[in-house]
Amino acid sequence: MSAQGTPQDPEQLGSTSSGSTPSLAIDPRKSMIRAVAWVLGVLFLQFAFIYSYVGAFHDPKPHQLEVQVVAPAGASSQAQQLVDELNRLSGDPLDASLADSESEAREDVREGDDVAALVLRPEKSTDLLLVASGGGVSDEEAASGVLTKVVEEQRRGVEKEDLVPLQSGDARGLTGFYLVVGWAVGAYLFPTVVALARGDRPRSVRVAALRLAALVPYALASGFGGALIVGPMLDAQTGHFWQLGLLGTAVSFSIAALAIGFEALLGVIGIGLTLLLIVIIGNPSSGGAFQAGVMPAFWRVVGDWIPTGAGVDGVRQIVYFGSDDMMRPLLVLAAYAVVGIVLTLAVAGRGRRPELLMSA
């Protein structure tokens, strides 16, 4: 029998006797280029992390926080003068308007439509400041500080009434932020572990569908596990276990689906892209540690349109505002989930990526 085409064929093995390079040998030059590219990518993410967090938090300043001024009977002109004065303050910290009535101002603050309302009481030595700390401590403190300073310049005092106080276990309103961060961390680590075990690109549409389906039990466990910890276990945010569990399921699924899609399309680069969007940009802009009203323009604008920001907003709506305005957070989460699903199914079974995008 001829030896041609057998595994022992020197040509097929790239025998050194013929002077050729083995076909499976690693190209040192390409390997070095790939290694340098990964190191540069890590440095980019590292510096982006530092820039994003420090840039968002190092110098919080109020920017057009919406407040109302309530005029006493027969003193609307005095109240309008105060509104004009507030809107002329240097740096535009407030966006002030004249309320139709105290009851309307109370409702707007209680529902989170306005950060604060100042009720003028000329018959007393103090004016009444209505706030809702459950909507975000940094915004509330910033608006209160500006309004209090203006009132005190008129040699009057301020009495504060918190219409939506924080729960006793929710120090500075940070519980929801850390809850969402926990959901997000698991949601981008889970697809990474799956990719390491089974490969980052599904072999077929069927395998891709099974991988996406596996997210459902994971997302349920993630969402309700987090709600269990902050609720019954720690009493940090109580009375909303089922709603928080369902929101956490949506947050976890949307981020994990997006991560699977990015990894299927780009391999290791997809992991970095998920990290960039969700952690490096998403966490500081989410409105958790500092709310949008005191952050620089970039973070103020993008936060509501990233899953972490949608999650933090959703937690606040559930815990403090009766779930009155859940449409936008849920639509954002749904949009990211759809993008992840479409990406994963679209690239499934398409074979190898270009070499520079390969994970190994």
Describe the structure in your own words.
The chain contains 13 helices and 5 strands. By secondary structure, it is of the alpha/beta class. Strands 2-1-3-4-5 form a 5-stranded mixed sheet, sandwiched between helices. Helix 2 runs parallel beside helix 10, helix 6 runs parallel beside helix 9 and helix 8 runs antiparallel to helix 9. The protein is elongated, with a radius of gyration of 28 Å.
Shape: elongated
According to DSSP, the number of beta strands is 5
Radius of gyration: 28 Å
Give the proportion of residues in helices.
Answer: 55-70%
Structural class: alpha/beta
Strand and helix order: HHEHEHEEHEHHHHHHHH
Overall pLDDT metric: 88
How far apart the termini lie comes to: 39 Å
Beta-strand residue percentage: 5-15%
